[in-house]
Design goal:
The chain is an alpha+beta fold. Helices cover 50% and strands 16% of the residues. A hairpin with a 6-residue loop joins strand 1 and strand 2.
């Protein structure tokens, strides 16, 4: 027989009494206290899971509880009973993990891996899902500062001959008419900021004199415009904003209300102008160009040619098409484009 001292709660009040719990080898138990003798079988009671060195509770069939602080004796009782009922709930597994260092290490690795996976894959995927589900009118809100930006000292009036501007604009309109998209696209010519093209979420696309002077054919310009249109169609501005703020992304996901992001909207046009889009979004815009060219049986060579020319250092300084570390290297992009041709 194994005997240990316990605190007994009758289940009717918060008061406890000191008692003695006796366990026979066959599983018969007897609880003895002042004016109390209660018999039950061990298998009919339920023992709380072990959690570090905290006291454990034995739930009795009569609704009462025994609080056990003599854990060594309690372990002996458990070991004696081959048919013991050991609850393996959450607390049991927590105790297993905290009492074995390799479980702690494994748990840390799992948590870190899941966190990294959420940042690398989860946030972009969720932001894409949310962005494509939101109305196009939100993209107009994101571009509210575009007009003021285009009239700022950063840009000057274009010096490209009007005839060439009109020719490019006509081709741009032809492309728009073939797209199944709700954005209101517009093309703006400006001088300044080197050889550049910018896409704002509303559909405003800016092409600079530097880029037009660098291009050796209109086909090269059209390819660049397609790339920028790919940013708009795929809602990259909105996705970039959502990815940049986890709180905004979660609130938008839960409420479906993008107004929670109002504080970030005003800064987006300038952010896009300075930093452009991320590596993955640039690849997606490249794929948009290829899909369009392939569907019209057109060569991707003009696009790869102008990319390589920009990379060769012939463009004016300061071009966002001179990709920084956050953008895919030009050689990598050219290889991807050539592989899909």
């Amino acid at each position: 027989m194994i005997t240990l001292q316990v605190n007994y709660f009758d289940g009717q009040s918060a008061a406890s009494v000191s008692a003695e719990l006796c366990l026979e080898a066959n599983g018969d138990c007897q609880l003895l206290a002042h004016q109390l003798q209660y018999n039950f079988h061990w298998s009919d009671a339920e023992l709380s899971p072990e959690l570090a060195k905290t006291a454990r509770r034995l739930q009795l069939p009569n609704g009462g509880q025994c609080e056990v602080t003599d854990l060594a004796a309690l372990h002996a009782m458990e070991a004696q009973q081959q048919d013991k009922q050991k609850t393996k709930g959450l607390l049991y597994w927590v105790n297993c993990m905290e009492s074995r260092w390799h479980y702690v290490v494994l748990t840390a690795i799992v948590v870190i891996s899941m966190s990294a996976g959420m940042i690398i894959y989860g946030l972009p995927a969720l932001s894409k899902y949310i962005a494509l589900a939101l109305p196009v009118s939100i993209d107009q809100q994101l571009s509210e500062g575009t007009d003021a930006l285009l009239e700022s000292d950063l840009f000057k009036t274009s010096e490209i001959p009007l005839k060439r501007q009109q020719r490019i604009a006509i081709a741009f309109t032809d492309i728009i008419n073939q797209l199944d998209d709700e954005h209101s696209f517009s093309l703006v010519f400006r001088r300044g900021l080197g050889a550049n093209a910018f896409a704002f979420p509303s559909g405003v696309i800016v092409v600079t004199d530097g880029l037009l002077n660098l291009a050796e054919s209109d086909a090269e310009v059209h390819a660049v415009l397609l790339h920028e249109m790919g940013h708009v169609v795929n809602r990259h501005g909105l996705r970039l904003l959502l990815q940049g703020s986890v709180a905004t992304l979660l609130l938008t996901t839960i409420t479906g209300d993008f107004s929670v992001s109002a504080g970030f909207i005003a800064a987006l046009p300038m952010m896009l102008l300075k930093k452009g889009y991320s590596r993955d979004l640039e690849r997606e815009a490249d794929d948009f160009v290829l899909t369009y060219l392939e569907s019209h049986e057109m060569s991707a060579k003009p696009f790869t040619d102008i990319l390589q020319r920009m990379s060769s250092g012939h463009e004016e300084a300061g071009s966002i098409w001179q990709y920084s570390s956050s953008h895919p290297a030009t050689d990598e992009r050219v290889r991807r484009l050539q592989q899909r041709r």
